[in-house]
Design brief:
Elements lengths: L1 E6 L9 E9 L5 E6 L8 E3 L4 E3 L7 E6 L7 E4 L4 E7 L14 H11 L3 H15 L15 E7 L4 E7 L2 E6 L3 E4 L10 E2 L3 H8 L10 H5 L2 H6 L2 H13 L7 H8 L31 E10 L6 E4 L11 E3 L20 H13 L2 H26 L6 H22 L5
Antiparallel strand pairs: 1-2, 1-12, 2-14, 3-6, 4-5, 6-7, 7-8, 8-9, 9-10, 10-11, 11-13, 14-15, 15-16
């Protein structure tokens, strides 16, 4: 499960595009932060999660937040200010489960590496989808978890919602603000695949007796309802619209840290799939928010990518990163089991807090919130004077080191 949001410059306080996403995956599936440099690959093929496809002559620099074991990514941005997040969606189109296609995460990374604008990224994903399809397992330990994908794709000036069902798709250009969750949501598309309507007619899903709706025609009712995607989408939109016209990265962080619209007495043990900041509990609620990102995308200056690099945004601090800096150069990548990475160190703390959430969260909350506010204010001050990449890198490295230090110190509570 996931939630993704994009707000155009028309309704943000800074006049820059804002993007936000929670990545909900299986518990203990560590999420890595990775900087991929600009490249001119010598290899003729790129090995994605399950298949190889032809490589391109030149690839963009990117910062990715990705499941540690996957080639593809859940969310990220490139050096041109293109930013993408994906969602699992459940459709009527059957998946053969042969693992001979691209995952949604593969499609996301390929588009970031190959596109200079959001519109180019839409074309990149739909072209790859048509050629290779998306018959690919999206799970970690759950090898039976197959799904189709939707995306929010944005750059400094525009954003698109792209929803897929097998090799069919629909795209809608965002007006002001839009959020998506684990459900098809496009009724009146701005673009659809050439065969979306004829394929639906062939299957008997659309008979031409009403206006064509991608959502109504292709949605799988049962799994879409079980995901409680509508509740989460309502929550992210309601919280964002409260600040329409003055929306900031700080507001986006608060939205992603919310469990639901009334969560003052939240307990992880009572969590369900309606939570934006998701805590796994049982088979009906199997997902945990394993990574979170907020991006402020600027036209003529570096974009700020606020990434937790940890699970449970309600207990995390967003750290600023910048494409084409070395802040992630020596970053310890997580593995399948507890190690010295930021993700696993924080996970140990988060597990401990979750056993007595309200009481134990209070031990760190004041300092956590103050630290986040400090980072946001320092970032705003930096951009008042057209900072160089070197200055931004120094700032990013400082923030990362501070978060690592406070997690070490907060972890002393466990002992």
């Amino acid at each position: 499960m996931c939630d993704t949001l994009a707000a155009l410059p028309s309704i943000t306080q800074s006049g820059y595009l804002l993007f936000a996403k929670n990545s909900d995956r299986e518990p203990n599936e560590a999420q890595a932060l990775l900087h991929v440099p600009h490249g001119r690959p010598v290899e003729h093929a790129v090995k994605c999660t399950f298949i190889e496809i032809p490589q391109v002559e030149e690839t963009n620099a990117c910062i990715l937040s990705k499941p540690f074991q996957m080639w593809g990514a859940e969310m990220g941005a490139n050096e041109h200010g293109v930013v993408i997040g994906n969602e699992a969606v459940f459709t009527k189109v059957k998946i053969k489960k042969k693992n001979n296609g691209l995952t949604g995460m593969d499609l996301l990374r390929l588009a970031l590496e190959r596109s200079k604008t959001a519109e180019e990224a839409v074309t990149c994903i739909t072209s790859l989808l048509k050629k290779y399809g998306q018959d690919a397992c999206g799970g970690y330990k759950k090898k039976s978890f197959y799904y189709h994908n939707s995306f929010i794709i944005a750059d400094a000036q525009q954003a698109w919602v792209l929803e897929t069902a097998g090799r069919e798709w629909a795209a809608e250009k965002v007006k002001d603000i839009r959020s998506i969750s684990n459900k098809l949501s496009i009724d009146k598309a701005d673009r659809v695949s050439n065969t979306a309507i004829s394929f639906a007619q062939q299957k008997g899903w659309w008979k031409g007796d009403r206006e064509f709706s991608f959502q109504k025609t292709y949605s799988d009712w049962f799994y879409t309802r079980m995901s409680r995607a509508a509740a989460r989408q309502t929550c992210t939109m309601a919280l964002s619209m409260k600040n329409a016209g003055a929306l900031t990265a700080w507001h986006c962080m608060q939205t992603l840290q919310t469990h639901n619209l009334e969560d003052k007495l939240f307990k992880p043990s009572k969590a369900n799939t309606a939570s934006v900041c998701m805590h796994a509990t049982s088979i009906p609620n199997p997902s945990n928010t394993t990574g979170s990102m907020v991006a402020e995308v600027r036209s003529h200056a570096p974009s700020t990518l606020w990434l937790t690099g940890t699970s449970n945004p309600c207990l995390s601090v967003y750290i600023p990163f910048y494409v084409n800096t070395l802040a992630l150069h020596d970053f310890v990548q997580p593995t399948s089991r507890p190690d010295e990475s930021l993700w696993w160190k924080a996970e140990r703390l988060h597990h401990w807090i979750s056993k007595d959430y309200q009481k134990r969260k209070a031990l760190i909350e004041g300092e956590r919130a103050a630290l986040q506010q400090e980072f946001v204010e320092r970032e705003q001050q930096l951009f008042q004077s057209s900072p160089s990449l070197e200055e931004l890198e120094k700032f990013s490295v400082s923030c990362l080191a501070t978060v690592q230090q406070v997690i070490e110190r907060w972890s002393l509570y466990i002992k």
